[in-house]
Amino acid sequence: MERRKDAFFAEMERQRDAVTFDEVLLKTGYSTIELPKISLVGRFSRNCPLKRPFVSAAMDTVTGYRMAIAMARLGGIGVIHRNMSPKKQAWHVARVKNHLNVRIADPPPVCVRDTATVEEVLNERRRKRYPFESFLVVDENGKLVGVITGQDFDFCVDKTRQVRTAMTPRSDLEVASPEISDDEAFEAMVRMKKKRLPLENEDGTVAGLFVFSDLVRARSGTNMHNTDERGNLRVAAAIGVGDGVLEHVELLLNERVDVVVVDTAHGDSERVLKAVRRVKMEFPMLDVVAGNVSEGDSARRLIEDGRADGVKVGQGPGSICSTRTVTGTGCPQMTAIHQCELAVRDSGVPVCADGGISTPAHVTLALAAGAESVMMGRMFAGTKETPGETLFRQGQRVKVYRGMGSRSAMRDSRASRERYSQSDKFAPEGVEAVVPYQGSVSEVVGNLEGWLRSSLGYVGASSIPELHEKADFRRISSEGRKESDPHDVTVTPEAVSSAAMDLSDDEAFDDEGFLDENDAADWYQ
Questions:
Q1: I want to staple 259 with a disulfide (CB 3.0 to 4.6 A). Which of 19, 30, 287, 361 is the partner?
Q2: pTM
């Protein structure tokens, strides 16, 4: 089905021209949209939904388990980088999947044998870094015989005792059938004042566990957690195309990864297509996103020949990427997104725009061009959730941010060299840098969400699919771009505060003359 923007890009193609974000603006339109009611639901892959269309990049200075947890809690998803061993990457995935447990339907992670010692259980918890401290206790037949909690561990002086002598026995527990619903479990736990509700099959074996604190979060009206059908946070992980790819994926699947991303600089290659086919044949129920590409034919091949469930678009647009400069290849990102989306439009497979996002407007433009999600590295790189320490440089707090094709990344990791199809003697396709410290990623995502809602309001679109239908562009000149930015003034940090001082309602200020935090929030709205 043809869309409004298709004619714009067709004209660009006729002129053998391509455009990137800062060369275009969206046309505005009649709007009846209430911004809070706009839906920002998208997809990262065929079967992986997003409540917010934001994805953190698979870079070793961007996404480890902390970032992935934060992104899923904010409605998006994080892609755990692969500049580590497959075993360690699987551990990062496990940290994300075990962070939130509304209904634990897969008992093994929360079950221990009654014959184990308290010390053994504590050591295993430390080794796997489980965020929870309560375990169901089972016998040799998998039948529930009790529960051991943090309190039991604290009051057990002799850690060599067997768990069965330190636990709360089955006779003192409240249990439920696995058929119980989330709402029924919540009501029962409130009534009984229990923080945990074990689920037991008719034969006495463990069927699962409800955790009250996570149930409360899931029931919250403001909950934006991106969770799977079990109530666990969703997470993705990057993989390569080498001989050990199936073993790598199996490790990740053991920790219940939601999506794997075949992560290469050039996704339109036989090695990538072969890797995607192998993974889909061996694990048909697992979603596989593949990339990166920037041509429509390349995107179509990944889906038709490789059976990919998502396509990652972007070759060289990133702020720390030098691929285009050193190789002379690639395509400006707006054109790349549109032609890839157009090529796979009727396949049911979504496009993820990867790279080049340096302003909030770029997020909207990438989605308007046809993407269902936007992958970002630079926008998140300075947040506290990224790997690495916060440094001070020239009196400013900064964090390290490097391209996966940078000299240091290639030197440190075989995975980085493989991503760019290079051997031990390598030619870098990226740079190392530092970026200003930004605080929590929740603040960044919150701002991006606000600006994205405003953008959809200007277009008159109530959702991302409607944005795809209504979006139309006009190309702007360098002077038009200059006019779009603040100009002919000296911008000062105090400008907003000065405006706030013009409020006529003196009650908005506290005794010290500062705007009250709650009233300030109302005023800015």
A1: 287
A2: 0.79
